[in-house]
Please model this.
Amino acid sequence: MPITEIADLETVKQYLRIPNPSQPNSDDATIQIQMNAAQEAIEAEVGRIVPRRITAERHDGGTCELYLREHPVLYIVNVEEGWGYYNQELDNQDVNSQPALSIWAYSLDNAKEGLVTRRGPGNVLYPFVHGRNNIRVDYVAGRNEMPSNAQLAFLELVSIWYRQSQQRASAGNTEAIAYNATDDQSFTRATGDTSVNFGVPYAILEMLKGARRRPVIG
Model:
């Protein structure tokens, strides 16, 4: 079953311990905004989770390979090579496919890293034709399975943001928590003060460490 979201609104409300999570309430719109922001934050660390179509991503030609900017890659829709006066659509020709006869071909060699190579007859590597932004790729980035650590990090991040912005008055130990840093305020073990004035806590980043994606270049 395709992934449509990291977690739905009812699941998030259950995690927040909101009574009757299946019933609409006045906080739903706020929680949904926080969910949208949390998904972007999580996917910035681990790559796309919810499938998203990327249209007309451009790359320079001249090398035998290119790395797509969004990954992991579910599948490629189209690769088009620009020769200046005309555009040539390339055929999907897997590395070990037989027969491999097309002179106009590509293969997705590493879906996790988004590695695409230019291929010809016999699956021999060929450089993409030289040019600036003359290679167009349309593809879908995302996953078929939900990473457990990403789902937990998503739920916990929404929970932190919700408590910080919507439940300050109900904090159990207000003296030990400083929601907004002030001048000359020290957050150390000696003072016992804890600053929660941050976007994505280190605890969330630790949850995602095993699934971090490589830096996106280009």
